[in-house]
Amino acid sequence: MAATRRPGRNHLFVPGPTNIPDRVMRAMMVQSEDHRSVDFPSLTKPLFEDTKKVFGSTEGTIFLFPASGTGIWESALTNTLARGDKVLTSRYGQFSHLWIDMAQRLGLDVIVQEEEWGTGAKPEKIEEALRADKNHEIKAVMVVHNETATGVTSNIGAVRKAIDAASHPAMLFVDGVSSIGSLPFYADEWKVDCAIAGSQKGLMLPAGLGVICVSQKALKAAEGQSGRNDRLARVYFDWEDHKKQNPSGYFPYTPPLPLLYGLREALACLFEEGLENVYHRHAVLGEATRQAVAAWGLKTCAKSPEWNSDTVTAILAPEGVDAAKIIKHAYVRYNLALGAGLSQVAGKVFRIGHVGDLNELSLLGAIAGAEMSLLDNGVNVTPGSGVAAASSYLRENPLSKS
To answer: Where in this chain does the record put each Aminotransferase class V domain (predicted)?
Structure first.
């Protein structure tokens, strides 16, 4: 008789959703309550302030939506832009592609800079396009900070410098879904006008809570859309409704109560560790994974070290090997969930997510499982090589800076 139960826990190493700390899961086990009660703001009002910290902001405004990151993309676009407005963006992976698709479907005029998958946004090309826009028709620059499909991180600070060098008034929108809460992010310093996050990545929560940090400039742009016949339609994602209710601790509709309690606890986890330590830990885990890949004799999808992501590593399968089979075998045989290749890299890469609530031994388990799946699928790697390389690096590089 076939086994009906897998012993042990599933080892989740996709780049989101991520592992949820036990204390966060316990915090979400709450009874329903009246979200209009006089006690409710004691939960919510601190969240609007504390959440800004993971965005690197003191000046921004936080909106919390029962939504995924995709919903928050729509929120950013529909509140600040009008039909036919020009936006400038780069396409270098599945998620940058999806944001472009959304903008086009909403009725925006999208100027796309095509980049090779495995690279990211090119600040010099963005500056050139903005300098050429003498009439300032481009209203926003959209950048995916961390492209999980390819394991690539773009330099948002350099993009901001490019916009400033061109003396262009375009807003800066950043998809930080797989970076915020894990990679250094400085919304105020980089003058990010809309920074987008989802609960299921660095915030270590289930999917379903979308978070956006909005600058004063973006709020003014949204106010300027009021009454325009060409404004983009919005109801559920209208910031104005939140602006009326949030200051007193309430929402314009029923909030996802367990996720709010979970967010409070997840933020406590991050702040207790210290955000700089969180960023350092992800950098160490990312490099340990890349050390394992090199020891296997394989290559990452990222074309050069400048693009390496510290939250996910996309690994190129050898020529003639279907990466999807490596992923399926790891899941069925070893109860290990690895990330699949998407779109242009489907069947060509498998991904190890190293984001969220992870430590050295967690990562080594994933590397060991991936290595066994590679061997089982006929990939010529030296048994134990990836684990040895990663563990050697981890022994020499503590996860905490303090």
So the answer is: 12-326
